Amino acid sequence: PLRAALGTVAGWNVFVLLTFVGAGGFCALWLRALGLPLGAALVGGLAFALAPYRVAQSTGHLLGPISIFLPLALYGVERRLTWLAAAALATIPLSGQVHLALGAIPFVLAYALARRRAVLGAVAALAGAGAGLLVWSASLRDAVDRPYAEVERYSATLGDFLSRDPGQFERFVYLGWALPVGAAVGLGLLCLSDTSLRDRALALVLGLGALVPALLALGANLPGYGVLWRNTPLHATRVPERMLPIACLCLAALAAAAVARVTGTQARRTAAAVTAAAGALVVADLWTPLYDPLVADEDNAIYDQ
Predict the structure, then answer these.
(1) Tens of pLDDT along 147-195?
(2) What is the average pLDDT score of the chain?
(3) What CA–CA distance (Å, rounded) separates 45 from 23?
(4) E strand or H helix at 269, and its extent?
(5) Residue 125 CA to chain centroid, in angstroms?
(6) Whole-angstrom Cα distance, residue 65 to residue 58?
(7) Taking a C-beta distance cutoff of 8 angstroms, is the pair 248, 161 a contact?
(8) Do 246 and 213 meet the contact criterion of CB atoms below 8 Å apart?
(9) Taking a C-beta distance cutoff of 8 angstroms, is the pair 89, 108 a contact?
(10) For the residues 63-91, what does the mean pLDDT come to?
(11) Contact 22, 88 (CB under 8 A)
């Protein structure tokens, strides 16, 4: 529809911009359903929308746009909308992002268990797994196994997590400098706080959701990854970073919890100022030079592929 209305180039540009709105909006919607105040939820949504890895995978890869369904699935769990959680989770493998689905399915199931919605989580997980099997049987069954050398080529290093340089596209895993610190504060509040924010089960799921995909992104640089890769469905993958949108979402949520705690004890005007400052810090922390203007070429035959 966008292409028909606006042409190929403008339609694609609008599509990408709408996925930014969707990423931030769905994340904020989920955080509001968790009980966070509006300002903190918006900061969390901004952090997920601008997550450098998610943005990088939106410059020509569908992983970035499809990642917007992660918070939508969690919102479905939180609001007890089984159909929404199942549809959002199944969309990930149906879009071809099967590697992300390998992490998203157990993550959403674990989140549902933490929120005491086991049956809902099981239904959503089965829908996601069924969609993944359908894609595998239709298009991946006869795929040639990936050589481990490709995994080694695309594996990130610890230094890559601190670098804003997007030169190595598949190894670009920058998560920010300030955001992980804010997320660590939020994790501590969820575990230790005496306020209504305390929820150790949620803290465990979000903490592992931030840590495990980041560790797996190290690929061949992570001891034991080769054994895991050879003996699990990861054997059909070559880019270890594909689960990183889960970490981006969890970091955003944990940082939003920290903002909620700080602003919760402030007067309204002061809380608004602190929230605005947190949003500005997120933008400055996560900004990376990932987009460059290109000359539009509507007549290029590649658009018809």
Answers:
(1) 888 899 999 999 999 998 887 778 899 999 999 999 999 999 888 866 5
(2) 91
(3) 7
(4) helix 268-286
(5) 17
(6) 6
(7) no
(8) yes
(9) yes
(10) 97
(11) no
Is 0.85 topped by the overall pTM? yes
Contact 66, 100 (CB under 8 A): yes
> Torsions phi, psi of 26, nearest 5?
-65, -40
Q: Which residues contact 204 (CB under 8 A, 6 or more apart)?
A: 114
The Cα 63–Cα 112 span in angstroms is 23
Polymer length of the chain = 305
Task: Return the DSSP state at 231.
Answer: T
- Taking the C-alpha atoms of 28, 34, 39 and 43 in order, what is their torsion angle to the nearest 10 degrees? -50
Kindly report, residue by residue over 199-244, the tens digit of the pLDDT. 889 999 999 999 999 999 999 999 999 999 999 888 888 899 999 9
Strand, helix or coil for residue 298: coil
Assign 48 to helix, strand or coil. Answer: helix
State the Cα–Cα distance between residues 177 and 166, nearest whole angstrom: 16
As given in the structure block, the two tokens for residue 51 are 């997550």
DSSP 91-159: HHHHTT-HHHHHHHHHHHHHHHHHTT-HHHHHHHHHHHHHHHHHHIIIIITTPPPPPHHHHHHH---GG
pLDDT of residue 300: 72
**CA–CA separation, 191 vs 283, rounded Å?**
27
Structure tokens given for 95 = 């879009």
Q: Which residues contact 101 (CB under 8 A, 6 or more apart)?
A: 89, 92, 93, 128, 131, 132
